Every structure is written in structure tokens, then in C-alpha cells.
Amino acid sequence: MSKNQSAPEILISLKPYLVRYRKKLILGLLFVFLTNLFNVTGPILVAGAVDSLKLNPTSGALLGYGLVILFVAAGRGIFLYLVRQTIIVVSREAEFDIRNDLYQHLQTLSASFYKSHNTGDLLAKNTNDINAVRSFLGPGIMYSANTLVSFFFIIPVMLWINWKLTLLVLVPLPVMSYLVFRMGKLIHQVYSDIQGHYSVLTTRVQENLSGIRIVKSFVRESAEIRRFTELNGIYQDKNLKLAWYQSFFYASMTLLIGLSVVLVVWAGGALVISGALTIGQMTQFVMYIGMLIWPMVALGWVMNIIQQAAASQKRLNQLTDETPEISDSSATDHQLTGISGKLEFKSVSYTYPDGRKALENINFSVDPGEILAITGHTGSGKSTLAGLIVRLFDPTSGVILLDGRDLKSYPLKVLRSKTGYVPQESFLFSDTIGNNIAFGVESAGDQDVLEASETALIRENIEGFPNRFETVVGERGITLSGGQKQRTSIARALMKNPDILILDDSLSAVDTQTEDAILTRLREKLAGKTVILISHRISAIKSADQIVVLSHGQVAEIGKHSELVDHGGLYSALYVRQLLEEELKAIS
Predict the structure, then answer these.
(1) Where are the alpha helices (DSSP H) in 418-542?
(2) Which one of 12, 263, 459, 462 has the largest count of C-beta atoms within 10 Å of its C-beta?
(3) pLDDT per residue over 47-88, tens digit each?
(4) What is the pLDDT of residues 167-189, one digit of tens each?
(5) Which pTM does this prediction carry?
(6) Which domains does the chain have, with CATH numbers?
(7) Secondary structure string (H, E, C) spanning 30-60
């Protein structure tokens, strides 16, 4: 998308939503037309009533005019109500669709996207920016249409009454047009800057609240308050700058409109004195000027709305223009609906976008029913390897085969629904424990949740809570211990009854006895399934059917526990060191 697009070019991307609700919009525009038809009729009746006082000053004539004027005012009010019930309602419905479409699009984007985009910025776009766009689709369209139709009705009548007076009313228009052009560009720039900084502010708040325990443990409350106050001050200054531009613009518009009124009263009064204009016509003309004041002011307001909406829509377009790095493609075979679980890595390498090489020339295979363990020092590429299996990213070279077929040939939905993945960081939603466990299964029953929690050895802990499985765990599971969060995450993965289960250092927060008990249950529960067990603890992986030892992104050793210990390599060194650590703990 071009950086120099004009506001109309940016807002054209909203066309699908306008087309979707075109019937309501057309009906709303018809109501705008009828509202102004009644609106323009009122002053005509008032002029007739004023002039009739001179010709036939009776109460009966005035009563007749009064009743008709009341009817016209009622008609105008009814159609004005219908205008808002169509156009404003359309803007709310379109807002609902835009927010849903944006959220749906965010769900399709790859994990790498979220590593380079702040959560606060995404939240700002889902709230403030969408609200700005909604204002354009509602008040923006409504007042724009009302202004155009008002001019369409009123100006011809004013010209018919007296074309010279009408030209006096229109004298300030060129200056207004220049103001709209100049101030529009300034407001667009300032509002874009405001929205960008709002994302920074939102990100700061989100990170601070998510990491509140770190803030408190390092006694950084005062420092964080100072930093927030500084960012909030910058945000305030930017908004005050926008307010100054808007105030100047509105004041200038009001001054120019006032100038028109003064010119008309001065020139019109002379025409009335000379008899070229009746008092009723003069009254009608002044009423029309009053009717044009709001559309002229609204023109400036709408210009602000358009510029703000364009700035926000540009930010939204930047987001919707993002394409997922990982998705189904022409290589996808949608006939594939299940898997057996045989995995093969053939010369697989992966380099991160920033150039860091994570894995190089990885080769191994694992059959269904086997437990494959992966170990190695921190940073050796263990988690990256796990991410490749569920296609959080794809290899930069080599191929991963699943049941003898390229992993990319499986639809993502099939691959991920048949795979249970428990990442290093156990993330729980701010919901009940039961709902967290049942998260990946649409039709989960209470018995299924109980069985999964039993296998993960978390059931006893849960039933010790006052509300048992209805206990709300708080944001990110803050009310649970590290071990409880890990076991809840394992239970959630087991609920899917996966054909491949990947545990990425998911037992690091539990003691070795609990670890052994969980692994024994997993082996029984997942008989015939493929298990990928990633851990730096030898106690967790020593009973695996095959162990892959990684070092600096490469396979250093492959074999069973006894073979690798006898080999005397990296695995043996890790094993000896951990035995010594356990002995030292026992002594102390």
C-alpha cells in the first residue's frame, strides 16, 4: 500500500462493507432527502405567514399556517429519526463486521508475526482505530449527505428569492475550501501521530500489568509510574495540538459564516426598505442562512472525521495486508483427514529471519508408539524443532515427513488438531480450570475433563479448591503454581486424544517423583501414539525409546539412555553432572 495515498483512496477499502449494507444506506439517504424536503418547506410557510399579516391580519389565517408548520416540523422529526435508525445502525453493524474480520485475520497470521508486533499496538487498532472508522461510516456519511442535500434544496430557493443576496452568502466559500484543504492535511498527520503513540502507551500498560509480579519484586513501581506519566504526557501534548488545530478550524468557519450573516442582513435590510424584498422573504432568507450554518460547520467536522478515519484505516490496512507465512497452499492435500504419527526429519535446517541459525542438517525418525526424547544445552534448538513439527514455522531447507508425506501436504487444521503441543511457557486463559482443560475440544464432557486431569496428576489439586473445576484461575493462570499450570496444560493437550504429543520442557516445575508418575501414565494413555519429549532433565527422558542430543543446532548423538551413557559423549557428561547435583542436594 502506497504511503502517499489520499484519504478517499485509503477509505475505498471500506467499500465491501458499504456494499454489504447498501439497501439500508440507500434507504437512509432517501430519508435524508425527505428530511430536507420538509426542512426547506418550513421557511416558505413562515414567509407566507409573515406577509399574510399585512394582507389579512386575522388569527384564523395564522392558525392555519401554524398547523401546517407543526405538521412539517413533525414530518421532519420523524424522517430525521429514521435517518439515524438506518445510517447510524449501518455504521454499528459495519463496525461489528470490521472487528470480527480483523480478529479472524489475526488468527490466521503466523507465530513470527506476533514476535515482531506489540500486543498493545494490536489492541489499539482493534479499539481506537475501528471506532474512528465507525465514526466515518456513521456520522461522517450522514452529515456529508445532509450537507449536500441541504445545499441542493436551499441554494436554488435562495437564488429564486434574490440571487444577489445568495452570492453574498457564498462569498466565504472559497476561503472555507482552502481551510478544509490545509487543515485536513495537518489533522491527518497529527491524528496519525496520536494513534501511533497510543499504541506505544497501550503496549506499556499491557506489558506492565502482565509483568506486575516482576515490577513488584524489583520494586520498580515508582519508576514505572514515572515512565507512564512521561508517555501519557506526550500523548496529552499530541492531543492538545490536535485540539488547537480543530479549535482554530471551527472558529474560522464560524467567523466566516457570521460574516455571511452580517452581509446578508445589511444588504437585505436595504432591499426591504426599498420594497424590492418583502419582510416575509427576508425572514425566509435569514432562516435559510440559519439552516446552512450547521451544514457548513458539519462540513468541517466531517472533514475531521474523514481525516481521522483515513489515518486509522491506513493502520488497519497495514495489518490486513499482512499475509500468514504458514498456511495451506497448492501443495496441501485436503483429502488427508488423519495421521498415524510416523515422523522423519531429513536434512532439516532452520534459520530465523534475523539470520540466526537455529538448526542445521537434522536427521532422525520416530515410529508410532515410540517416545522420542530431545535434550541438549539451553539454546541448542530444542523448542525450534518442536515448532517445526506443528508448523509454527517451516524449515529453510530439508523436509519433514509425516507418515511418508511432506508435512506441508497436510491441511493445517488436520495437522494441529491431531497434535497435542505443550510449549515451554504454560499459558492459561482467565477462565475456569475446567474450561482451560477443555479448550481444544468443542464437545468436551465432564468425564473427559476428569480423565485428562487424572492422567496429568492435577485432579487432586483441582478438587482441593473451593470451586473445584469451576475455579477461575485469573489472567495467565496467576493463581496456580508453576507445576499446576504445567499439569493443567498437559491435561488440555490430552483432551484432544492426539496422535502426536509434544511436551516441550513441560515437566520442569514438578518434582522427579511426580514427573515419573506422569510419564508412566502418559505411556499407558498414549500407547500406539507418538510422543516427543523435550527436556534438559535426564530423569525425564532416560526411559525414552530414542534420545536425540542437540548441540548448537546440530545432532550430536542419537541412541538409548544406556548406549549414550556408555558412549561417554555430551549426553554422558550431562548425566554425570545431574547425578552430582542430585547428590549434593541430598547431602545439603
Answers:
(1) 433-437, 446-455, 459-463, 482-494, 512-525, 538-541
(2) 462
(3) 777 777 766 666 566 677 778 888 888 888 899 899 988 989
(4) 877 777 677 767 766 776 777 77
(5) 0.74
(6) 103-320 (1.20.1560.10), 336-418+499-588 (3.40.50.300), 427-497 (3.40.50.300)
(7) HHHHHHHHHHHHHHHHHHHHHHHHHHCCCHH
Q: So what's the pLDDT on residue 376?
A: 83
The phi-psi region of residue 530 (left if phi > 0; otherwise alpha if psi is between -120 and 50; otherwise beta) is beta
Cα–Cα nearest to 418, from 339, 313, 310: 339
* Cell output for 9: 483512496
Checking DSSP bridges between strand 530-534 and strand 500-504, what pairing results, if any?
parallel
| Alpha-carbon 218 to chain mean position | 32
Q: Is 513 helix (H, G, I), strand (E, B) or coil?
A: helix
Average pLDDT value for residue range 205-231 = 74
Nearest to 204 by CA among 185, 183, 232: 232
Of residues 428, 439, 356, the one with CA closest to residue 393 = 356
Q: What DSSP character marks residue 469?
A: G
Q: What is the strand order of the sheet 357-366 is part of?
A: 357-366, 343-351, 397-402, 405-406
Residue 206 — φ and ψ, nearest 5°?
-60, -45
CA dist 408 and 334 (Å) reads: 11
Q: Please, is 491 exposed, middle or buried when counting C-beta atoms within 10 Å of its C-beta (0-12, 13-18, 19+)?
A: buried
Report the mean per-residue pLDDT for the chain.
Answer: 81
Angle between helices 173-210 and 221-274 (to 10 degrees): 160
Cell readout for 165 is 443576496
Helical (H) or strand (E) element with 10: helix 7-11
Contacts of 85 (CB under 8 A, 6+ apart): none
26 forms beta bridges with none
Q: How far is CA 577 from the centre of its chain?
A: 48
The C-alpha atoms of residue 588 and residue 586 are separated, in whole angstroms, by 6
> Does residue 553 contact residue 373 with C-beta atoms inside 8 Å?
no
The 3-class SS string of 156-207 reads: HHHHHHCHHHHHHHHCCHHHHHHHHHHHHHHHHHHHHHHHHHHHHHHHHHHH
Which residue is associated with the grid cell 471500506?
14
Amino acid at 477: G
CA–CA separation, 86 and 91 (whole Å): 9
183: cell is: 487543515
How far is the CA of 16 from the CAs of 22, 92, 207, in angstroms? 10, 15, 35
